[in-house]
């Protein structure tokens, strides 16, 4: 960590002698400007100089120690430097446990990680016991050998981690096993408002191991204390390493005997009292609505949820695909190394039940302000190629980017091979006018001319109707057919169940 002044940037901290000279010059200048005679005895001016020095010190330390980023080798320095009022200045602490190649085995590396985390949490607890109660944001990052891991039962801290009552936000970034352990630590924190979990669902893990991880993670989510916080936010990012490889090989992440994904169901149960939920993972429909075989299942209700963002993989946890290939002659060819898999067309038998569960969930979110349901196709550089979004009045629609070659039907294979550009935009630079911003907006941004079923469309049109009312603007964008269709639904045009009695306008 080094000298504390280094964290404030590239500025050089003045030495003690320089500070003394500066204070003497400042004091002399102030005395001469006010017409006062300076005393020959330096001791009589000491209090005045000390006041200047203390003000300067507080100003610098407030900025320097507000946000710190440290590693495991700097924990002792932190304990020695962070004393007195400096501890109360700390608001955001980032701790990174790097992959130390000095460890001979993964077990030794894991034990070193446990010792470092235990020391850090114990240090924060000692500060809390001394009266430091400022709200703290803690970010834990750790690097490991991604292709190696231990089962959840093989890992554990030597003693239970203490409770931090001032922990406001916790972000954990690493591999599956350690992230699950630190999620258990999060479940013990009474005042935790925001939990962010980022880890890689590594495709080289065996099916049995991946299933064990998902079950362990689901059990941990059931104990998260965020359920008690009406203003809580939960973010889960289970990064899909080598998703293209998984998509082509059709790997699965849960064992075949499971009727539904326990991780998706646990996220739904944990989210019922949240205000914001963001998830990126392999998911099935139980993230929105319980499976009929799910024990103690009941209709969910999200009274406080205002922001919902779901990024689901093109593969379900059971290995079924939500999208199929383009049935054209150039499917399977690599066009200048751009497309590695061409499955882009929704499969109704799988996607429709998923969308139906999502639509029912939206009807149970009376406070919803915006949602985005997205799926990224496993291409090199593709993102958000399937997107259904809703925005309340006053909230602008987030652009769903498309980065794939122009695959128009009137182009030949030779023309496609010569095409070098990318479409990195939607059809409109400005997705809505200032006038449209005053109304509720529902947008379907898809690759093909796919459209939801009537029942799904009815339910999604009701998003925000009870809270905001007014006109609904429904927009379809098809990148394949290069079409944009806009329809308007006024309140009197919608029946109580969301079915349109008539269509006000179409362009």
How would you portray this structure in words?
Residues 28-40 have a biased composition (Low complexity). It comes from Sporormia fimetaria CBS 119925. This is F-box domain-containing protein. With 507 residues, this protein is of the alpha/beta class. Among the domains are: 1-64, no CATH class; 65-166, no CATH class. Helices cover 28% and strands 19% of the residues. The chain is built from twelve helices and 16 strands. It has helices at residues 16-33, 46-64, 75-81, 86-89, 106-129, 176-186, 207-221, 243-249, 262-270, 348-363, 413-418, 454-461; strands at residues 67-71, 92-97, 136-142, 167-174, 194-200, 233-239, 276-281, 307-312, 323-325, 343-346, 370-375, 386-391, 440-446, 472-478, 483-489, 505-506. Strands 1-2-3-4-5-6-7-8-11-12-13-14-15-16 form a 14-stranded mixed sheet, with helices on one face. It has a two-stranded antiparallel ribbon with strand order 9-10. α12 (454-461) links the parallel β13 (440-446) and β14 (472-478). Residues 1-37, 241-247, 328-340, 378-384, 401-429 and 501-507 have low confidence and may be disordered.
